[in-house]
Amino acid sequence: MIAKLIEYNLPFRTKERIPNIYDHWIAKDIMAYFRLALGSRARGDFLRIMNRPKRYISRESLNMQPVISFDVWQDFYEEQPWIAQRIEQLGYDLQVLSRITPFAAVNYLRKGIGYEEYLTEYAKERQIPSADLFETLDELAESTKEYRRLDEWLQFVSDYTEKLKQKREYNRTQQETDSVSIMTLHASKGLEYDTIIMPDVNEGLIPYKKAVLEAEIEEERRMMYVGMTRARQSLHIFYVKMMRNKTVEPSCFLPETLKLE
Predict the structure, then answer these.
(1) What gap in Å lies between CA 171 and CA 12, rounded to an integer?
(2) CA 36, CA 67: separation in Å to the nearest integer?
(3) In the predicted model, what is the mean pLDDT of residues 213-229?
(4) Is residue 1 a contact partner of residue 180, using CB atoms and an 8 Å limit?
(5) d(CA 162, CA 170)
(6) What would the pLDDT profile of 2-25 be if each residue is shown by its tens digit?
(7) pTM of the model
(8) Which long-range contacts (CB under 8 A, 24 or more apart) does 129-138 make?
């Protein structure tokens, strides 16, 4: 939503600090792969992704190379040809990425290169829900759909990050009244606006998918009520039928809203 407001040059303000998804380490992995596919041979880019997924490549193999040569890199593993073959495969994968759209590239990265397996192992080792990592990956993949080339998406990420940074600085020093206010339901407590728009009122978001106990569901219901009652004149509630190529259901709270006067 913020990306679209920026794209159309619509003024907005945020009550809370909005996290930048492109600061997430998964986004940084994707960007490193894309830069390498576009011809970067920076040591830092290779260090970031050379074992994502696991290729058993050591940092020492890159220590003498500020700019990486695949031939020199493979020669380092002359006595371990199975690792040299993985470096050769990485070179081939980067060539594939360079020829396809960003969305197709993310899918190739996920399935063809094995990044999804890496995320699964990462989550298991750290005892965290893998679904959270895949949700971030899905959202990043969705953001690439509008772009035909890798460099176009990388430029969008750079522009978005810079404009979001500028907006944070502006919000600290200015109070722009004629603008769209973006906030969570929690942050809306005690505030009122002529018009309230509530997007994505879908199962899994409202109520949130991790709310399973009766008390948690009740708290989610209460927060939706808080958001609805911020409107002085008009309230617009929206849900979607598809999200990230998956069918999603309207919130179970929606039938209850029809009973309110």
Answers:
(1) 9
(2) 12
(3) 91
(4) no
(5) 12
(6) 888 888 888 888 777 778 899 999
(7) 0.81
(8) 133/26, 136/21, 136/24, 136/26, 136/27, 137/26, 137/106, 137/110, 138/244
